[in-house]
Design a protein that fits this description.
The chain has 246 residues and is an alpha/beta fold. The protein has one domain: Decaprenyl diphosphate synthase-like (Undecaprenyl pyrophosphate synthetase), CATH 3.40.1180.10. It is built from nine helices and six strands, in the order αβααβαβαβααββαα. Strands 3-4-2-1-5-6 form a six-stranded parallel beta sheet, sandwiched between helices. Bound molecules: 3-methylbut-3-enyl trihydrogen diphosphate (2 copies) and magnesium ion. The site of one 3-methylbut-3-enyl trihydrogen diphosphate has 10 residues, from helix 2.
């Protein structure tokens, strides 16, 4: 039986987030330039968006480019930005056809104007779609997001719109870029790195973490289903004891 067939419909995570890692190493293993791995990685994005959609998951967040990734060699950054634009151009019709709603999180102002424009265009064109919500994290980092939230809350207090005693989890959430998105129940990272790399630190407080050695360009639908299957067989206790859950 495949992992896909083993999935229990009633126990699906609403939101899965993925740190797509290992493109560079995948290319290097083949004696190719890193960008070759990024291109292959786009094919995986296509497959996994499909897989999430087919499974009936509501939200899929993909970490595509971190704030720290701006420190990579200029040539790789430029190639990645070009790849982003060409991917949007080639995928826009599929997204519309599949009823996918695209959202972005991150500091889009950092992106080249052309990429920024393209992203906004596709977000706009898909905003009324009711199927899978696909969230692309671009020029995103969690500390950037949290500092931003703190600044906005401080400014609201300064303007006397809210007071210090109003600050709680719920209010803080509203100032994050993910305000309208439920927390991911499952976070996957590929490529055998066991770290979070500044991704959704607040939102993953109680997420189940799943790490796999598979490099992102080799990650197949069935690997995604395996991760979801693994998730479905965990006991999420949220601080309670087992007897209180069952
Ligand atoms: C992930 O693959 C994609 C991005 C961060 C843009 P990497 O480019 O980090 O690949 P590795 O980790 O060097 O193999
Ligand atoms: C994390 O991958 C960011 C993305 C997948 C976009 P990195 O490859 O940049 O992370 P580190 O540097 O290995 O932690
Ligand atoms: Mg990496």
């Amino acid at each position: 039986m495949s992992f896909k067939e083993k999935l229990i419909k009633e126990k699906l995570p609403k939101h899965v987030a993925i740190i797509m890692d290992g493109n560079g190493r995948w290319a290097k293993k083949r004696g190719k330039a890193r960008i070759f791995g990024h291109k292959k990685g786009v094919e995986t994005v296509h497959k996994i968006v499909d897989a999430a959609d087919e499974t009936g998951i509501d939200y899929l967040t993909l970490y595509a480019f971190s704030t720290e990734n701006w420190n990579r060699p200029k040539a790789e950054i430029n190639a990645l930005m070009m790849l982003l634009v060409s991917t949007i151009n080639s995928e826009i019709n599929t997204l519309i056809k599949n009823n996918v709603r695209l959202l972005t999180i991150g500091n889009l102002d950092d992106l080249p104007k052309k990429v920024n424009r393209k992203m906004n265009e596709i977000v706009n064109k898909t905003k009324n779609n009711t199927g899978l919500t696909l969230i692309i994290a671009l020029s995103y980092s969690s500390r950037w997001e949290i500092i931003n939230a703190v600044k906005m809350i401080a400014s609201q207090i300064e303007q006397k719109n809210i007071s210090v005693k109003d600050i709680n989890n719920e209010l803080f959430n509203k100032f994050l870029t993910t305000a309208q998105i439920p927390d991911p129940e499952l976070l996957i990272r590929t490529s055998g790195e066991y770290r979070i790399s500044n991704f959704l630190l607040w939102q993953i407080a109680y997420s189940e973490l799943y790490f796999t050695e598979i490099l992102w360009p080799d990650f197949e639908k069935e690997d995604f289903y395996e991760a979801v299957y693994n998730f479905q067989n965990r006991e999420r206790r949220f601080g309670k004891i087992s007897e209180q859950i069952n």
